[in-house]
């Protein structure tokens, strides 16, 4: 395999872009750029596309929001990041700085850090329920992941991914859908503390820093996740 097409391991992916103002989340590089108008948002996006060069096709995504442009990089054919995405991130950061702007994941500040949301569905028979969720959400298989138990993704990149967790036995008294929130590794503990201060409780930290399981006052669960501890 051409080394430029080799999916990066999580630790090397994170280290490769952190100094550039990007963060690694769920096999994708993310950053944001502050803007004051739609015209500035278009300008920032054009700068990113020019800087990305050939990698803009099939790698770069831009989401224009009030006050902020969200940029991400991933090889769409691999559903992962490679050295091509690292190089594109470096070129984009350099071009933005030349234009007087910063690639900023806003870790620990305002606006909130870049993050990715997933919905996890516990099921006894995953192949039986997966087609329903694929149809009702109009979702697609991830590239290269089209098995009967694989996750589903929004083809427009607007909604959270949905994945399925195998149950061993029925759990009628416990929620069977929970939220997975992936945050930058250097944001996780601040977010954990904020959730606990807001009335949440820690259910399980046995797999931290891969994830912490939290619950609200009525037992509804969310996992705060990072890339760490998964290799």
Automatic annotation (TrEMBL):
Residues 119-225 form the Glyoxalase-like domain. Transmembrane segments: none annotated. Pfam families: Glyoxalase_6 (PF18029). It comes from the Bacteria. PANTHER family: CONSERVED PROTEIN (PTHR35908:SF1), HYPOTHETICAL FUSION PROTEIN (PTHR35908). This is 4a-hydroxytetrahydrobiopterin dehydratase. It comes from Jiangella alba.
């Amino acid at each position: 395999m051409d080394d430029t097409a080799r999916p990066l391991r999580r630790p090397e992916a994170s280290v490769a872009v952190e100094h550039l103002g990007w963060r690694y989340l769920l096999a994708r590089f993310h950053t944001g750029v502050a803007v004051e108008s739609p015209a500035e948002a278009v300008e920032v996006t054009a700068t990113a596309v020019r800087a990305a060069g050939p990698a803009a096709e099939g790698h770069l995504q831009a989401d224009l929001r009030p006050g902020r442009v969200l940029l991400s990089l991933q090889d769409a054919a691999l559903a992962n990041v490679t050295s091509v995405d690292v190089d594109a991130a470096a070129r984009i950061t350099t071009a933005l700085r030349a234009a007087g702007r910063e690639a900023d994941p806003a870790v620990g500040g305002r606006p909130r850090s870049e993050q990715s949301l997933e919905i996890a569905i516990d099921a006894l028979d995953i192949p039986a329920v997966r087609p329903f969720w694929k149809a009702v959400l109009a979702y697609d298989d991830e590239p290269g992941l089209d098995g009967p138990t694989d996750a589903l993704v929004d083809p427009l990149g607007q909604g959270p991914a949905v994945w399925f967790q195998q149950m061993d036995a029925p759990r009628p008294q416990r929620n069977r859908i929970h939220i997975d929130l992936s945050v930058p590794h250097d944001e996780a503990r601040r977010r954990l503390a904020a959730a606990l201060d807001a009335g949440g409780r820690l259910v399980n930290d046995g797999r931290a820093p891969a994830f912490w399981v939290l619950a609200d006052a009525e037992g509804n669960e969310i996992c705060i996740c990072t890339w760490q501890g998964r290799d």
